[in-house]
């Protein structure tokens, strides 16, 4: 007898009428609310034809914006990743006073409005900021230039890699590293040979999310970049500029590039989650209850 | 309430868990479903409860065909292996749950009185305000039982109820469950893989293997007259010796055992450790002692016969025996099965 | 001095502290310093000005509405994804993260294109007399869009891990679907729901890029606090910018504490039961 004809006693909410109605409503709202924005980007981008689209993408200012976005990511993401690894190692492999406090501090940027982040950086490196006069005297440009954009992006995405690694490394414990050390391995050797293989998918996951956010960051970068067309505009800022210039097709054309990036990010997320990163890991925080009496066969699971 | 299973079949994917099982349970009986994992015992219990639906066959509660009735309308009380107590409710609220959601409306005082009565029955009076996380495993199981009894079930079903508990807690609860059953007289069906528990507790034991009933009967019947090597080995320690059957008699070493109904030819004799004796002279199977194991109940010898598997026999604690001694294993009793 | 078993503490901790100090603590400290150097009178004057208070009102009410919507829709979405099977389920499951992966500015112009008076949905809604773009309703939709994943992803794992024997026990005791949902399942899901909505609410309070395109940004009507901060910067009124940004900062810290508390409570039943 095949699984599809086997009857199962109904669980809560399995009433066919209720179930179908709920699925229908949810799917409709999702289509309007989540899918439509993605679709409209594509449609609007090509609304004036391929020629306009190509022109918008290859326009000099756009190309510079793309270049700036990529360079920012190429600098910010590796630094953040190194920080994330260091922080995760320090926090999970050792016990020291202030550990919990450090964890909270690392999480802070996740909760802060990007505008606040931008304003805060203004007050450090801007003319009215702490180092403003010193920087001006030394003729170093941080704000309204690449360094400012990179720094603000790093603030906003600082927790991303760390928060993927820390729960995982916490759950994995220290046994393997202690074994390696007892066999004579150096710190670096231990990390690369023992720790890294166990965390690589979670690490990649954090990097993917970090990159998506860096490339898409808008609020913080708006404040620190100075918005100078062709010079200090990242892609999100350039989109805003085109949009307010009534070049909406051009704005959507550039937006479509970021939309594709978002879809690639989602695909990467799903693939990595299958390998146990992110949601795919059964974090100890949400412990599974003891197995029920009935045998759980693949067809019976509804997930 | 009499329960009747009629040729019940259940398949999961391609795994046939239950193969056409038929079983009658008399009203007021305490029946154990005993078997190793994968024998289908839990599946049968859950089908009686309505937590699984049979693929074919019928289940009757008294005169009513209950095969398709949903679990909430069957009037069964189910006790889960891991208690399934609602963690966000107190003990009293857990016990009262069935009464509160029942179609039969009961007043607050009536419910409270019944909860108190049930807690007294399971000897947990005074713990009504505690949460499940604040009481021990044995206490939780008693709450689970009280909760199941609160809705006046016609049938009580227990799924390895003591499986998650320590050995001595298990023994105490076993005795206590028997008392409750005798006091209330509810038809009770419980599942276990622990033969000691089944034999201790049940009026009738139903032994399952791979989805079929291999033997059923009173504890005395299945112990004294196991019908197969499987049942014999499953119920307790069993030694195996080869034998030859001629004319309804089996020859084992120098002993002869009755072998009713066994065809002539090769056979196997199954013997309990207590069915064997150790002698330094006299007849029997020649063997050498490998180990002497002493425990509070007595003394067990591990011996290696000249041919065949290692044998285990229980002897009186004063018996002279040392590892390395040679002697004979005398056969007093045994069950003969065709090889 | 305690001897460490594993190597690298000084290096990694040093790097971590250095990074955190320069990247996180320094800027926030500078902001706090700048806001504090205002003196109480000036500070209070700015943060309690009519326009600022109006922006708080707009931001908070829209965030509350968006969170309320997401509470219902997000829970329904999580329920459907976990407990039912239907074609395209895995696709929808992956899509839930889209608002998280999509740059906020891109989301902003997309939502505007949809809900503007001449947009795909805006046109139909206009016929029924509902205007979305350039009204608080637009802000709510933008906030709901960007905070949806937070509720769904917080509830999903708890729903997946809900002990099925609890449901079976409740059914065997005779409860109806509605009664069992209300009395058994919902109480066990409530901590996760609370954690989810506090995350979503916090996110909505601070959202900027997705909102400013669709909002219309009318002072006193559709101006969110984050935008007001930005405007003050453009006016070179750094004192006001610092003061209002500090309000956002304080709110963020409060929400951080609340969210941590809710998440700790969300684990209550899974660890105990």
At a glance:
The complex is a heterotrimer of chains A (303), B (339) and C (273). Chain B is an alpha+beta fold.
Distinctive features:
heterotrimer, A: 303 residues, mainly alpha, MetI-like fold, C: 273 residues, 2 domains
Q: What can you tell me about this protein's structure?
A:
- The complex is a heterotrimer of chains A (303), B (339) and C (273).
- Chain A has 303 residues and is an all-alpha fold.
- Chain A has a single domain (19-279), classed as MetI-like (MetI-like fold).
- Helices cover 71% and strands 0% of the residues of chain A.
- The longest helix of chain A has 34 residues, at 60-93.
- Chain A is flat.
- The two termini of chain A are 22 Å apart.
- Chain B has two domains: 3-231, Rossmann fold; 238-338, Nucleic acid-binding proteins (OB fold (Dihydrolipoamide Acetyltransferase, E2P)), CATH 2.40.50.
- Chain B has helices spanning 41-49, 91-100, 108-121, 137-149, 167-184, 195-201, 219-224, 229-235; strands at 3-12, 15-25, 30-34, 56-61, 64-65, 76-79, 155-159, 187-192, 204-209, 212-217, 239-246, 249-252, 255-258, 265-271, 276-279, 285-295, 298-305, 311-315, 326-331, 335-338.
- In chain B, the strands form four sheets. Chain B has a six-stranded mixed beta sheet, with helices on both faces.
- The longest helix of chain B has 18 residues, at 167-184.
- The radius of gyration of chain B is 24 Å and the shape is elongated.
- With 273 residues, chain C is mostly helical.
- The longest helix of chain C is centred in the N-terminal third of the chain and has 34 residues, at 50-83.
- The model of chain C has no long low-confidence stretch (mean pLDDT 91).
- The B-C interface holds B 49-51, 70-73, 76-78, 80, 82, 84-88, 97-98, 100-103, 132-133, 147-148, 150-151 and C 163, 165-166, 168-176, 179-180, 183-184, 187-188, 269, 272-273.
């Amino acid at each position: 007898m095949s699984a599809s004809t086997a009857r199962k006693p109904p669980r809560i909410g399995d009433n066919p009428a209720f179930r179908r109605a709920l699925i229908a409503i949810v799917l409709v709202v999702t289509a309007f609310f989540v899918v439509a924005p993605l679709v409209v980007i594509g449609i609007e981008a090509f609304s004036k034809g391929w020629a306009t689209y190509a022109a918008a993408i290859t326009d000099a200012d756009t190309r510079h914006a793309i270049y700036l976005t990529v360079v920012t990511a190429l600098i910010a993401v590796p630094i953040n990743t190194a920080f994330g690894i260091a922080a995760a190692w320090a926090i999970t492999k050792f016990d020291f006073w202030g550990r919990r406090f450090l964890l909270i501090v690392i999480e802070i940027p996740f909760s802060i409005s990007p505008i606040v982040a931008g304003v805060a950086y203004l007050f450090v490196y801007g003319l009215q900021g702490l180092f403003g006069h010193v920087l001006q005297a030394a003729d170093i440009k941080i704000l309204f230039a690449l360094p400012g954009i990179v720094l603000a992006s790093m603030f906003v995405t600082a927790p991303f890699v760390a928060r993927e690694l820390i729960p995982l490394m916490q759950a994995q414990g220290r046994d393997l590293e202690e074994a390696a050390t007892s066999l004579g391995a150096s710190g670096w050797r231990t990390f690369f040979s023992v720790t890294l293989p166990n965390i690589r998918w979670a690490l990649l996951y954090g990097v993917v999310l970090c990159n998506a956010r860096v490339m898409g960051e808008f609020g913080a970068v708006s404040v620190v970049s100075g918005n100078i067309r062709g010079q200090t505009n990242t892609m999100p800022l350039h989109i805003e500029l085109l949009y307010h210039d009534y070049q909406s097709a051009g704005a959507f054309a550039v937006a479509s590039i970021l939309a594709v990036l978002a879809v690639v990010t989602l695909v990467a997320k799903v693939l990595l989650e299958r390998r146990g990163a992110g949601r795919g890991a059964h974090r100890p925080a949400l412990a599974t209850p003891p197995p029920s009496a009935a045998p759980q066969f693949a067809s019976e699971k509804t997930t | 309430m009499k329960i009747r299973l009629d040729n019940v079949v259940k398949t999961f994917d391609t795994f046939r868990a239950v193969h056409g099982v038929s079983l009658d349970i008399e009203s007021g009986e305490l029946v154990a479903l005993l078997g190793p994992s994968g024998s289908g015992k839990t599946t049968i219990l859950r089908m009686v409860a309505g937590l699984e639906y049979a693929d074919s066959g019928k289940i009757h509660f008294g005169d009513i065909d209950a095969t398709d009735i949903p679990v909430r309308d069957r009037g069964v009380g189910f006790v889960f292996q891991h208690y399934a107590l609602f963690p966000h409710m107190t003990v009293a609220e857990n016990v009262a749950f069935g009464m509160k959601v029942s179609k039969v409306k009961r007043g607050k005082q009536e419910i409270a009185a019944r909860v108190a009565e049930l807690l007294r029955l399971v000897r947990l009076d005074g713990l009504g305000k505690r949460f499940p996380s604040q009481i021990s495993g044995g206490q939780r199981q008693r709450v689970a039982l009280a909760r199941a009894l609160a809705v006046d079930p016609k049938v009580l079903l227990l799924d390895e109820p003591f499986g998650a508990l320590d050995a001595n807690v298990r023994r105490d609860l076993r005795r206590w469950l028997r008392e409750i059953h005798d006091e209330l007289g509810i038809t009770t069906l419980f599942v276990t893989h622990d033969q000691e528990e089944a034999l201790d507790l049940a009026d009738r034991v139903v032994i399952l293997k791979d989805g079929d009933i291999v033997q059923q009967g009173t504890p005395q019947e299945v112990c004294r007259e196991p019908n197969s090597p499987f049942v014999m080995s499953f119920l307790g320690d069993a030694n195996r010796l080869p034998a030859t059957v001629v004319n309804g008699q089996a020859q084992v070493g120098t002993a002869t055992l009755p072998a009713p109904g066994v065809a002539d030819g090769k056979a196997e004799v199954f013997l309990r450790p207590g069915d064997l004796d150790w002698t330094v002279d006299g007849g029997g199977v020649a063997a050498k002692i490998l180990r002497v194991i002493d425990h509070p109940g007595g003394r067990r010898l591990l011996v290696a016969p000249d041919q065949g598997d290692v044998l285990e026999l229980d002897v009186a604690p004063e018996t002279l025996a040392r590892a390395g001694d040679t002697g004979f294993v005398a056969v007093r009793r045994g069950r003969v099965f065709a090889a | 001095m305690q001897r460490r078993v594993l190597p690298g503490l000084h290096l990694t901790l040093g790097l971590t502290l250095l990074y955190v100090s320069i990247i996180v603590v320094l800027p926030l400290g500078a902001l706090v310093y700048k806001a504090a150097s205002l003196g109480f009178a000036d500070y209070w004057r700015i943060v309690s000005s009519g326009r600022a208070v109006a922006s708080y009102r707009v931001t908070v009410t829209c965030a509350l509405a968006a969170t309320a919507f997401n509470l219902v829709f997000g829970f329904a979405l999580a329920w459907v994804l976990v407990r039912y099977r239907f074609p395209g389920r895995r696709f929808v499951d992956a899509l839930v993260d889209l608002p998280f992966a999509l740059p906020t500015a891109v989301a902003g112009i997309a939502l505007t294109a949809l809900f503007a008076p001449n947009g795909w949905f805006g046109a139909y809604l206009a016929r029924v007399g509902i205007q979305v773009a350039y009204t608080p309703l637009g802000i709510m939709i933008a906030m709901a869009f960007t905070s949806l994943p937070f509720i769904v992803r917080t509830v999903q794992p708890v729903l997946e891990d809900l002990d099925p024997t609890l449901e079976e026990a409740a059914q065997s005791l005779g409860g109806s679907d509605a009664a069992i949902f209300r009395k058994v399942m919902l109480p066990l899901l409530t901590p996760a729901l609370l954690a989810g909505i506090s995350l979503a609410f916090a996110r909505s309070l601070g959202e900027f890029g997705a909102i400013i395109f669709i909002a219309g940004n009318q002072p006193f009507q559709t101006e969110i606090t984050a935008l007001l901060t930005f405007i003050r910067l453009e006016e070179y009124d750094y004192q006001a910018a610092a003061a209002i940004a500090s309000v956002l900062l304080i709110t963020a810290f409060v929400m951080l504490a609340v969210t941590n508390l809710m998440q700790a409570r969300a684990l209550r039943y899974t660890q105990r039961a």
